[in-house]
Automatic annotation (TrEMBL):
PANTHER family: GTP CYCLOHYDROLASE 1 TYPE 2 HOMOLOG (PTHR13799:SF14), NGG1 INTERACTING FACTOR 3 (PTHR13799)
Keywords assigned by UniProt, alphabetized: Metal-binding
Oligomer and partners: Homohexamer.
NCBIfam families reported in the protein's UniProt record: YbgI_SA1388
Pfam families, A to Z: DUF34_NIF3
InterPro entries: DUF34/NIF3 (IPR002678), DUF34/NIF3_sf (IPR036069)
Superkingdom field: Bacteria
Protein name: GTP cyclohydrolase 1 type 2 homolog
Similarity field: Belongs to the GTP cyclohydrolase I type 2/NIF3 family.
Organism annotation: Asanoa iriomotensis
Length: 283
């Protein structure tokens, strides 16, 4: 089984048209010869040294990544930078690199559909509709059975890929949740849209202190904040299934946790009040 880089790019562009990407985004073929043969593809969230090494070790001819490697203009790809080393490693090992980012975010099915499926949400619709009713940023859905926020948080932690970050929530633990908005990746900018939609909870990543605090205090939905990588990893399974059905290639999915946060320690106790004298050391 084999195809070419050009054929793989055509299939990916058909599924995730580059014109759907945000103007600031950088999607498409980053490294590779369109005429080169492709027998094995590795799907990853991040193109980092670890996933490149994984691809080389697996004999992958093409990496399909969600996050762009070269988002901003560069004047050098020398090996003195880690991105330069990645480019050199890809070329030396005849591995191509393709990126589908915000065009995959708004696709139907796209990144947020895969996230919604992990929670079992039904009756999906875009959180922020796009140019047509089917696609757009984020998804809104309904839980088949309503449950308290505490149970939904535990469910999210159990169905999303394991990370040191885990899943944290803001809101009344006993609040009953039925309608849920989700956004794979950083969904901070869609807090107002989730509130306007009247959903009971919003699951995304990279929520900041003040916007989250103000959103909850303002009567908005309960918030669930997961690791960025974990909210986008589910999409890789859908991507891989599409590539297997469309191209005559072997497709692998990376489960390497590329979230930058690698340790987590839960708080064990609050500090004593300032007027509490310190305890005398034991003799």
């Amino acid at each position: 089984m084999s195809t070419t880089v050009a054929a793989a790019v055509a299939a990916l562009d058909d599924r995730y048209p580059p014109e759907w990407a945000e103007e600031w985004d950088r999607v498409g073929l980053v490294v590779g010869d369109p005429g080169a043969s492709v027998r094995r593809v590795l799907c990853v969230v991040d193109c980092v040294p670890e996933t490149v090494a994984e691809a080389v070790g697996a004999g992958a001819d093409l990496i399909v990544a969600h996050h762009p490697l070269l988002m901003r203009g560069v004047s050098s790809v020398a090996t003195t930078s880690y991105k330069g080393r990645i480019v050199h490693d890809l070329i030396k090992n005849d591995a191509a690199l393709f990126t589908a980012h915000t065009n995959a975010d708004v696709a139907d099915p796209g990144v947020s559909d895969a996230l919604a499926a992990r929670l079992g949400l039904v009756d999906l619709r875009p959180l922020v509709p796009g140019a047509d009713p089917a696609r757009g940023a984020g998804r809104i859905g309904r839980l088949p059975v309503a449950r308290p926020l505490s149970a939904l948080t535990a469910q999210a932690a159990s169905v999303l890929p394991r990370t040191a970050w885990g899943v944290r929530a803001a809101g009344d633990p006993d609040r009953v949740i039925e309608t849920v908005a989700v956004c794979g990746g950083a969904g901070d900018s869609f807090l107002a849209a989730a509130a306007a939609a009247g959903v009971d909870a919003y699951l995304t990543a990279d929520l900041r202190h003040h916007p989250a605090s103000e959103a909850v205090a303002g009567g908005g939905p309960a918030l669930l904040d997961a690791a960025h990588w974990a909210t986008e990893r589910p999409w890789l399974d859908d991507l891989a299934a599409y590539l297997r059905a469309t191209l005559e290639v072997d497709v692998l999915v990376s489960d390497l946790d590329t979230d930058p946060w690698t340790l987590h320690a839960a708080s064990t106790a609050f500090p004593p009040p300032k007027d509490t004298p310190p305890k005398e050391p034991l003799p």
